[in-house]
Structures are given as structure tokens and as C-alpha cells.
Amino acid sequence: MNSARRLLLSAGIITACAGAVLGAALWIGGPQQGGDQGRTGRQQAVAERGRSVMPFDLEETTHHFTPAESGGIQDVVADQPDDAKQIALIRTHLKQEAKAFGRGDFGDPARIHGGSMPGLAALQDGYERIEVRYRERSDGATLTYTTVEPALVDALHDWFQAQLSDHGDHAEAGH
Predict the structure, then answer these.
(1) What is the pLDDT at residue 27?
(2) Residue 140 and residue 21: Cα distance in Å, rounded?
(3) CB proximity list for 36: less than 8 A, separation 6 or greater
(4) Tens-digit pLDDT profile for residues 110-165
(5) How many whole angstroms separate alpha carbon 151 and alpha carbon 16?
(6) Please, are residues 93 and 58 in contact by the beta-carbon 8 Å criterion?
(7) Rounded CA gap, 152 and 167, in Å?
(8) 3-class DSSP assignment, residue 38
(9) DSSP string spanning 113-153?
(10) For 60, 73, 104, 171, which has the most beta carbons within 10 A of its beta carbon?
């Protein structure tokens, strides 16, 4: 290969890598915008879309995403443990989501986070091999995702990470 071709190939590879890094940065954080408690533009948009999908108040609740060896655990809790209204709304929503996910319907997360969110396509394709269990807790509810397929575990972890990033101060990594 002559040196001109090598130079063009190298420039193409560098450009592709830079594009991938920029794309990932925009997915994770979006362009920075002022206001709204320091949230990124993407986090503000996700919070707005979330209000049209999730019946509970994002300002009064917190999502917890805990990756596990066989999948993961998603808790949604009221910030005030005695907030009966938010707890009831959380439970209603997560019961519906458990049923929908069990049918391969991940439409709500796609509406909130976008159809290209990490892990989503794999979860939609492999939903029959993922067990989704709903459980109430005193301050909200929990969805537990379990699978024996390593690729689906990875997809769940990617999906959790995308939600953590997108929800900003409305979400926390579990322990």
C-alpha cells in the first residue's frame, strides 16, 4: 500500500473514532445547557418525556438501578417513605411495565429515552428469555430482571446505565 493510501486510511479511521466518541458523549450527556438544577439538555428532555409516560412525580421519587450477575434490579421509591400518593402511582406503573416487558413491549422506555437507547433492541428481541418480576416494597416497588444469557445480562446492564445517565438526579446506582 502506498503512503498516500495509508494516510487516507489513517485519516478515515481517526475521523470514524472521533465521530464515535462524540456520538457517545452526546448520548450520555447531551449538550450542556444552563438551568434546571444543572441537568444536561438530554436529561431535561428525558424528564419532560418521562412526565408524559410515568404517572408519579420525578421530583418526588428516585429510580435505583442495580446490575446483578443474572440481570438487574430496578427500584422506584418515593423520596418521602410515607407519601402514599407517589407510592400508589409507582406501584401501578411498575405493575403495568412488568406486564408489558413480559410481552416484549418496551414502548414506554423507548418513548422516554429514544428507540436507539443502549440495550433496548436486544431486550425487545430476547424478551422471552428474560423473567421480569414485580414486587412491592414499603416505599414503592421493584422490578427484577433475570436471564441466563450473558448477552441479555449485558443488554440489561447497558439499558440500566443509559437510564442512570438520562435520569440524572432522578436516579441512582444501586448497591
Answers:
(1) 44
(2) 37
(3) 44, 47
(4) 888 778 889 999 999 999 999 999 999 999 999 999 999 999 999 999 999 988 88
(5) 26
(6) no
(7) 22
(8) helix
(9) H-TT-TTHHHHHHHGGG-EEEEEEETTEEEEEEE-S-HHHH
(10) 171
